[in-house]
Prior knowledge:
The complex is a heterotrimer of chains A (464), B (209) and C (98). Chain A is mostly helical and 464 residues long.
Amino acid sequence: MNQSKKLGVQYLTASIVMMGALLLFGLLASIFYLKYGFLLGKLDFNIVKQVHINALIIACLWGFMGAIYWFLPDELGIETVGIGLARLLFWVFVAAVAVVVLVFIFVQYGSSDESGMWLVNQGRKYVEAPRWAAIGIVAVFFTLAYNIFASVAKARKVTGIMGVLMTTMVPLIAVYLIAFPAPTNMSVDLYWWWWLVHMWVEATWELIIGCILALALMKLLGTSRKVVEIWLYLEVALVLGTGILGLGHHYFWIGTPQYWLSIGGIFSALEPLPLLGMVVHAIYDAGKHQMKTHNKPAFLWLIAEAFGNFIGAGIWGFMMTLPQINLYSHGTQWTVSHGHFAFYGAYITGIIAVAYMVAQESRGIREVRGNAWKWAFAGLNIGMVGMVGALLVSGMSEAFIGRALGGSTLDGFMASQSNSWFMQGMIARTGFGVIIVASYFILAWDLATLGRRREKPSPALATS
Amino acid sequence: MTESSAAVFEPGAGDPRFWRDGAIATTVFMLLVLLLLTVDSLRVLTEGGGGNVPAYTVINQKITYEFDAASNMDKPVIGEEELLFGHRYSEAEAKAIMDKGKLVIQSRSCINCHAFFGNGAYYAPDLTKAWLDPTWEKMWMPMTQAKTKEEAMVQFLMHPDRYPTWARQMPNLNLSEEEARAVTAYLKWISSVQTNGFPAGFGRREVAR
Amino acid sequence: MNPSWLLPTAALLGIYVLCAGCYGMVYALGRLRESRRLMHAAHAFYAVQGLTTLLLVALTPLAWGWKAFLLASFLVYAVIPPLTWRQLERTHALEHES
């Protein structure tokens, strides 16, 4: 195995481990809603939540980087240029993340001046990492971009997929830098902050995972390059065509002009249309290949991606995206419900699919066997659907009681939080969270031991 | 592509380059529109620019939140002089206390429990219009034995652990008096931002707790 | 929006897209298995989406602009699955010919 592929395996492993931290801190955060005064003054909710959402970002980034370093040598036919530096930076990155998490948990709060921002916590959602760490992340991105560009130059081969991937490196770095200054005016601050969050998550990352899945599909199903590239370009057009101005659905209530209500509403209400096309596409692929693949888990996780995207971003998004509804639903557990399913459907499923492919190829397994992946697949999906369903119940009751009836005041908020519909949703959410965590451990065990454990041949799979 | 397959398709549809050019054209067009809208939005968002965001010195005035029938939404209304902490802030003083307030809010990671304009976390109340919450006069002024709303807010922010608040309890974040005053000023300013009616009916609706 | 209409409207909007999803999914399955019964089921789902659209337009306090948008996109939803399917067959035919 060449160096780039080794690094790919390292990043993907780190990504799966980080998902563990993501889930454990998520489960811990859910207990705060059930138990009054839980860990109060020791490890407050905001710190736990902060670790939870940062782990999500890091798990996704590591997953993408792992997949990119893994597929790059296949696509270009050469060892990745500058891989030595990239391998060194992997360890720097892991160490830096560990330091940041320890600082979050043990130092918690910095002073309210520039030194606090540089050393402890920037205190902006998703951008909590202290500035030194943020600069480190930029350095890692530049190295990744250098690896890709220099390798393409050396191989003298710009495929369509590489062209898209190279283009995504520009917004990946640019919008991260745009969101740095954090002006005092919260409205301006959030205006640029949404460029980072939306343009990363709902545009740049969609394209990166699109490139990764394009490479994966060519390998997994043997789809021809021409077909894959047509679909990738179509996806770019649809994602950016609706996604760039879809930014508007975050600009409803931050002090922005009123025209954003119409722009944001229309572009995000259009979103389910291409997602419906993806569902049809997934069924077409599944049917035409009659599930004949040597890596069933990877294939099923890819199918889950299409459905997860449609349900999480499509149905859940559509319920709350029109401004008249969003006025009440925005910033409640309803939002939380949508966010969880959308992130899971769009990214986590894709990364797991790639992890299965990499585990198979790196260990020379002819066919992925065993039953563990089935339990993990069922458990994670059932757990997710149950959790977002429970959060939806809580969120709807919160929006109705706290917002529509209560007018969002302290009294309204407190009334919504102690309502029995809200509480039952929260209890069910934690229950499904336990199922998710348990299934995660099965998944991690399966990925770690695939091809390394002794097992009986599985008759069900052998005949399929 | 062979001649025979080309006949099956509309011109170009089977050629990836056709789709690539389409993707580039769509993206460039959308980016240009976003750029134009951004120029206009930033004008509206700049503090004291005459748009939706008043200057920081608005903390010297009375702020209310009223339903505006013409636009069918709630809007902040800036009234006569109403000093904060009995002090008339100059432009420079107002800017300094806002800078501090924002840094306190960031350093204590407030938005990982609370939210501003609905952005943040949902474990604690949204703070967009917190300054206008009737509960400060109704409950917190008597409870903290403060003479003014802003003094009550400072008392609460410095010692939230002394005052149990039903379903949630705010931890003590070790705010100095200066920091608590800065946050209070920031909350007063942010309540004056015109937010297209969010949150609706704030302070005028009531629900049994 | 009248508070009592908040949740029914949101639920109808959710059902609207859910029906579209079921229509697309069952349509694709129907084409795959060449089953007329499944195709009928697909159209039934689309009909339910149409009913949801009617309810949204007739009853809910959404602004007329959004109602027009819902009606228009209801019509667009009809053609997404067949169009996608046709395009899929065309691009994949290309795969075997070239």
